[in-house]
Specification:
The protein is built from no helices and eleven strands. By secondary structure, the chain is an all-beta fold.
Length: 129
């Protein structure tokens, strides 16, 4: 049974930093691209960042470039999202997701919610102004 478990969310002031983590089990972690998405209540889930199975390639949505860094440790089955210079508009539930490496890539697939095979339960980030 595949499980993705996020942690690290919380309440932080604008300008602050926080690090989210996601631990995966039940799958061969290095066979998966790992992504982070976020969702505000009443809105669609949106792409934040994705990292390749080896960690050498990353993609970010424009609004977090230069502030967020995605990384992974395949020896610990963990993907992390370091978030700096946080803004109130970053407030959301953050989800990690996994997509098998042998599936098609490119043409914006990385940003599609339905492109991912597995999801975590989410962790809440609240940024106060």
């Amino acid at each position: 049974q595949v499980q993705l478990v996020e942690s690290g969310g919380g309440l932080v002031q604008a300008g602050g930093s926080l690090r989210l983590s996601c631990v995966a089990s039940g799958l061969t972690f290095s066979n998966y691209r790992m992504g982070w998405f976020r969702q505000v209540s009443g809105k669609e889930r949106e792409f934040v960042a994705v990292i390749s199975w080896g960690g050498s390639s990353t993609i970010y949505t424009d609004s977090v470039k230069g502030r967020f860094t995605i990384s992974r440790d395949n020896s610990k089955n963990t993907v992390s999202l370091q978030m700096n210079s946080l803004k109130p508009e970053d407030t959301a539930v953050y989800y990690c997701a996994a997509r098998r490496r042998n599936l098609a890539w490119g043409d914006g697939i990385h940003a599609a919610v339905d492109a991912y095979d597995y999801w975590g339960q989410g962790t809440q980030l609240t940024v106060s102004s």
